[in-house]
Write a structure and sequence with these properties.
Elements (H helix, E strand, L loop, with lengths): L2 H18 L17 E6 L18 E14 L2 E4 L2 E13 L5 E13 L8 H9 L5 E6 L5 E7 L6 H7 L1 H5 L17 E10 L2 E15 L2 E11 L3 E5 L2 E19 L4 E16 L2 E15 L1
Antiparallel strand pairs: 1-8, 2-3, 2-4, 2-14, 4-5, 5-6, 6-7, 8-9, 9-10, 10-12, 11-12, 12-13, 13-14
């Protein structure tokens, strides 16, 4: 999964978890790989024209990418459909290292909200919030097999403190957001799974994504994917109030085409998440449905 796409996914997850807690005990660093994390090849697929898939960005490569997010968010019976969020980002390869790794930079060039039928929030309100993301820059080093390292998020100085605090979660997880590629040569029909553990608001989320290759045409690789997200039940503390979070998790499916020479994706992803929060004798069910569509040109 490409960085800009996963960034929006993480923002949405932060929004859901932010309803539940702002502080948790025993926070684990997301930069430390958890036992069991990594990639596992399930099938190499057809041997016809099989090859080793690798990212290979040229220095100076620049690609615009549009992300369109439709989000339904509910907690304790409140909420509903949100306006459509549209982000335009620019992805650039600033430097290519001798081992083929690329120093990439993703910048949010524009962010706006569009009216959506049945939305419970005015598009103007969300648009004002989304506008604060303009100027956000994400840098990282991408290895040929899809491992991101030395990740960093630079936020606009004008960003509201509350928004900045939520987006700070990105810094903890950026090194886990690229689509991992197997070491072995693969062909059409190849399948592999990757497991990542990430920390959001002090809660460890375990994501397992299974990718199936449906076509390979030069640098363009078409795929389908299925993802599950789980986390153990746990108790957290929010401003002195003890809360229990249970049954949090979900998953989704997607399909698209990645370009190994530009690290972009055209396609869509649909995910659903849920959780149950109990505090001071009251229980609230939370759920989120998200559809994310991307295109580059």
């Amino acid at each position: 999964m490409l960085p800009a796409m996963k960034v929006v996914t993480i923002i949405a997850l932060v929004a859901l978890l932010g309803i539940a807690c702002t502080k948790a005990e025993d926070r684990k660093s997301a930069t430390t790989a958890a036992p069991g994390d990594g990639i596992e090849l399930i099938s190499t697929g057809s041997p016809v024209a099989a090859r080793t898939l690798r990212y290979h960005l040229a220095k100076g490569t620049k690609t615009p990418l549009e992300l369109v997010l439709e989000l339904d968010l509910e907690a304790g019976g409140r909420g509903g459909k949100m306006p459509t969020l549209v982000l335009t980002t620019d992805i650039a390869a600033d430097e290519v290292l001798p081992d083929g790794s690329a120093r990439i930079r993703t910048a949010v060039a524009n962010a706006q909200a569009r009216e959506r039928a049945g939305s419970v929030v005015p598009a103007s309100t969300m648009g004002a919030m989304a506008g604060q993301l303009i100027g956000t820059t994400l840098t990282a080093t991408l290895s040929p097999d899809g491992v991101l390292s030395r990740a960093k998020v630079d936020l606009p100085k004008s960003l509201a403190p509350a928004v900045a605090a939520q987006l700070d979660q990105l810094t903890q997880n950026l090194e886990q957001i690229a689509m991992r590629l197997p070491a072995e040569p693969v062909g059409v029909g190849a399948m592999w799974s990757s497991r990542n553990t990430m920390a959001l608001n002090g809660i460890d989320l375990v994501t397992v994504t299974t990718v199936t290759i449906t076509a390979i045409d030069g640098d363009r690789v078409a795929f389908t994917s299925k993802t599950t997200v789980t986390t153990p039940d746990r108790t957290v503390d929010q401003q002195g109030v003890t809360m229990s979070i249970k049954d949090f998790g979900g998953g989704g499916s997607g399909a698209g085409t990645i370009d190994l020479s530009r690290m972009t994706m055209t396609g869509s992803l649909h995910s659903e998440f849920r959780g149950r929060l109990t505090a001071q004798g009251q229980t609230a069910d939370m759920k989120m449905a998200m559809t994310l569509t991307t295109r580059s040109w």
